[in-house]
Each structure stands twice: as C-alpha cells, then as structure tokens.
Design goal:
With 267 residues, the chain is an alpha/beta fold. It has 8 helices and 12 strands. The radius of gyration is 19 Å and the shape is flat.
Length: 267
C-alpha cells in the first residue's frame, strides 16, 4: 500500500440558505499494531499506507532497535495479513534487538508519547547532531510552498498532516501524510532508515503543523539538521532542539518565519 486510503460519504452541505446533498472524501483511520521480533510494542491509529516505514521508523525513533539493522518487515507475524486487515506489522531483527517493554497505552493519532516512561529517558540516549548542514534561511522560508504541491491527501480531504525530508536546495526527497503528525514523521524516518540514509544531518524535516516535543525528538534521533514547521513550537520542543543542536523554525509561512533554535543565529 503506497498511498493513504480515502472513502467517499454522502453529506449535507449548507451554505447560507442553500442546502444540498453532496459526496465528500474522507481520510481512512485504522489501528496498526506494531511488533518488534514478534513482541507487541504498541497500537497506533494511522492512515493505512507506508506501514512498514511507519513501524520501522517508530522502532528507530523510540530507540528500540539499539543500533541493530532491520532485516525485514512483514504483515501479521502470527497468521494471515488478510485476516487482520493488514493492520499488524512485525519489524524483524533476527532477535538481535533487545526485548522491548510494551507501552501501557495505545497511541492515538494525535499523541505519540503516551505510555513512554519519561521525556528524559528518550533524550538521554541521544548525542547532539554531528556536523549538521547550515541551511540558507531564505531557502527554509520557502519550504512550505514547495511542499504544498506534494500533499495530495490533504488536498483531497483536509484531514491529514504531512512530513517531508528535504535537501540543501529545498527539494523534497520523501513526503508522507497521515492523520497523526508523529506517524507522518515516523514514515519519513522509516523510509530513510530502510534506504540506509540515516543519520540525516544533510537534510531538513518539514512538518505541516506545530512542532511538539515528540516531533523534535524524532528529528533529533534521525539526525536531521533542521525542523521547519508551519505552526508554533512548544517550549519543550525549543529546549529539545537547542539540546540536540537542531535549527528549529516555526510560523514558516508566506516567506516569513521565527527561528527558535539555536538560541542565537551566527552573525
């Protein structure tokens, strides 16, 4: 499954006194159970599509792989993928990854941190990004406009977030959309991981919404040099970006932006 799924429903459209029955396209949201070497880790609500990337990216950004490579990803390690609706993915390392502790709660499409032991635990395993590329600020200011053409699901439904890896010229290399912001980021990271393209210290990460702690933490884990967000960051996101050595820009719209990290730009 390459692209997220949509379905059409019949709705009542109201515009002033005009009332009409019209079809509307909605994004599909379904649960995905993620296993690591057949151990259940979590269940996340996501947009079906790029499921192997999502599962591998999640395992990587949560530090569950402990540096060992992913050998394979497959649907439903215990039975038929059809029987489970392609909603169970197992990431296989041949048993080399440490046995994971399952999250205590399911992960919703809006929150990727539920059940994690602590924020400090997620960051303590990471070192500052090594030798990150220094992006031209004018180029970063134009990134959202370049990404708008790549967000087909949003154009169709208006109900998904986007994440993208882009290079020094602002060219999008990997673009993914999902109902969950963190899912979209994990799909991008998972694609880079499976392609052997991590750490991503020569790339930037674009997100179509706000930049929360979890978004910056995942970007830090993947080694991105910068995070560009259309909306605001949280205070913890700013602290995390400064700690990790990432450039963090928010409110990147219409050629304008606010740079929150580093604390001061080089003169």
């Amino acid at each position: 499954m390459a692209r997220g799924r949509t379905e059409t429903v019949l709705t009542t459209k109201i515009d002033g006194t005009d009332i009409a029955r019209r079809p509307d396209e909605l994004i599909v949201e379904e649960p995905l159970a993620i296993h690591l070497d057949d151990h259940l880790i979590t269940t996340t609500m996501r947009t079906p599509g790029h499921d192997f990337e999502l599962a591998a990216g999640f395992c990587f950004t949560e530090g569950l792989l402990a540096g060992v490579p992913v050998q394979t990803c497959r649907y439903c390690a215990t039975g038929s993928a059809v029987d489970t609706g392609f909603n169970v993915v197992s990431v296989e390392t041949g048993g080399r990854a440490p046995v994971p502790e399952p999250r205590l709660m399911a992960t919703t499409s809006s929150c990727g941190l539920c059940g994690s032991a602590s924020i400090d635990e997620l960051c303590e395993r990471l070192e500052p990004v090594v030798d990150p590329i220094l992006f031209d600020l004018a180029l970063l200011a134009g990134v959202p406009d370049r990404m708008a053409l790549e967000q087909g699901l949003f154009a169709a439904t208006g109900a998904v977030h986007a994440a993208a890896a882009f290079d020094a010229s602002g060219e999008p290399l990997v673009v993914r959309e999902d109902v969950g912001r963190h899912n979209a980021v994990d799909k991008v990271v998972g694609r880079l991981l499976l392609d052997g393209a991590l750490p991503a210290n020569r790339l930037g990460l674009y997100v179509s919404g706000r930049s929360s702690f979890e978004i910056v933490q995942k970007a830090w884990a993947a080694g991105f040099a910068a995070v560009v967000a259309v909306s605001a960051p949280t205070s913890l996101a700013v602290d995390t970006a400064r700690r990790g050595g990432l450039l963090l820009a928010g409110f990147v719209r219409d050629g304008r932006m606010t740079v929150y990290a580093p604390e001061r730009l080089p003169s």
